[in-house]
Model the fold of this input.
Amino acid sequence: MSIDLPSLPFAAAALEPHISAETLQIHWGKHHRGYVDKLNGLLRDTGFANKPLDVIVESYANQIVTNKDAVTIFNNAAQAWNHAFFWQSLRPPGGRAPEGALAALIASTFGGMRGFAEAFKSAATGHFGSGWAWLVVDRGALRIMTTVNADTPIAHGLTPLLVIDVWEHAYYLDRHERRADYVAAVVDNLLHWEFAEASLRRAATGGAGHRSAGSERAATPQRA
Ligand code: FE2
Done:
């Protein structure tokens, strides 16, 4: 058994015009696949080859300071996990806004969807260098945060609800250096609020809200 590349939960052209099919095919088919393939090679003979991806991420996060090999394994495992979570954080344009408990938390934390969107765009656009912008649950409260390079909230005991990849490979083909345009397009059109609500419900009932993303097994990859 090895870590699988999860299929995209939508056709590669489904996010257009905000993210092109070409960008998705390269991002998923080259970058995400590259992290998964590298990880499987690194895990050989480690005793972790048969573990769920989130367990690998959390386990290697604890060794990152003292073990150079663990840094490489953590980086590839976390990137594999983050990308799987990113695909689930997106859905084709035209979906609904958050409802129920999540809508109430967004209202009490950010003053509503407009405040949330401004804060999320600001964090994602302002993050220096490569990384990720997240909406997380931190001890029952909503929080926006960014992580550097491969770092991920699940390595810090936090429950992610949504993420935006702000590595240049996520937007450079479509928008060159204009990260703010890409971030605005994602926040305004592509966030998968039903997925975020499901993660919040699992976190609230004591389950690991993030388990579904990285543990998901691949089916046949979808193509546009
Ligand atoms: Fe990426």
Summary: The CA atoms of residues 6 and 217 lie 6 Å apart. DSSP finds nine helices and three strands in the chain. Confidence is low (pLDDT under 50) at residues 212-224. The first strand starts at residue 131 and ends at 138.
